[in-house]
Amino acid sequence: MSDHATTQMKYGAKAKTLKSYMTGLTLSLIFTFSAFAVIGKHLLSVPASYITITALAVAQLFAQVICFLRMNVSREGNWNTMPFIFTFIVVGVLVGGSLWIMYNLDVNMM
Amino acid sequence: MTSTTLDHHHDHQAHSDSIDVFGFWIYIMTDCVLFATLFAAFAVLHVDNAAGPTLKQIIHLPYVLGETMFLLASSFTYGLAMLGVYKQSRARAVFWLIVTFCLGLSFVVMEVREFMHLYADGNSWHISAALSSFFTLVGTHGTHVSFGLIWMALMIGQLLKYGTSPSVNRRLTYLGLFWHFLDIVWIFVFTIVYLMGVI
Prior knowledge:
The complex is a heterodimer of chains A (110) and B (199).
Chain A: H1 2-8, H2 18-40, H3 46-67, H4 78-109
Helix pairs in contact in A: 2-3
Chain B: H1 2-45, H2 55-58, H3 61-86, H4 90-120, H5 129-162, H6 166-198
Helix pairs in contact in B: 1-5, 1-6, 3-4, 3-6, 4-5, 5-6
């Protein structure tokens, strides 16, 4: 019993395995190299570049959160996921709101 | 009888540990908000380069790719260290923690060199709002990584002294959350600051 509990140590995260770390590393490498290639070699137009590297960053965020941090939506995992979603919303309001306000100020001060 | 009492005690311990880890997770989330404010400031100010250079002129992409690889590799090797901890193998855990420490240190050294280079060229933080926000955002991340390294050195010492005891394991779980979190923040630093900076 005691051995079982100490070797698992999940704390609401899914069990960490070598396979999950390898998957996370492979996906992160693919996303990172794609992003640097798109910008470094000017593969896409300017608007398409912005959209692509943002998508790649978000994809890598999820790859690392799921494969490295092992976040999940199980009953126990929800305790970690809920603050994460809440933080996502706060960050969205903070960054989106700041840019919106500053853009408006910029336009109106011209 | 004794065994049930012990089990009960152990369950209680595991339960309070998981609440502690949840508390640390909340701290990580507040750190997310700190970085979000710095990202917002950077997003607003990155074009205000006054008399100084534009960010495009000071960014060297292959160098940043090198830093990224060091940090990503260190996040992965930290995972290998934790697998060693789960297997209760102190030697494996310490070995991979030392590898992680070296990779993290390489990242910090590269970043400090980048900053020193910029400073030597006269592009320091007081030149323009763009450079101020650049140094604040990237520097805050680098400071976090540096504190993570100090913490990691202490944990290597604790592992050597106490072995894989439950309290050492719990602290390593905290450090793991912190370390993976810093790599996740770096994804956005290299995307928003460096890659978007050179478009």
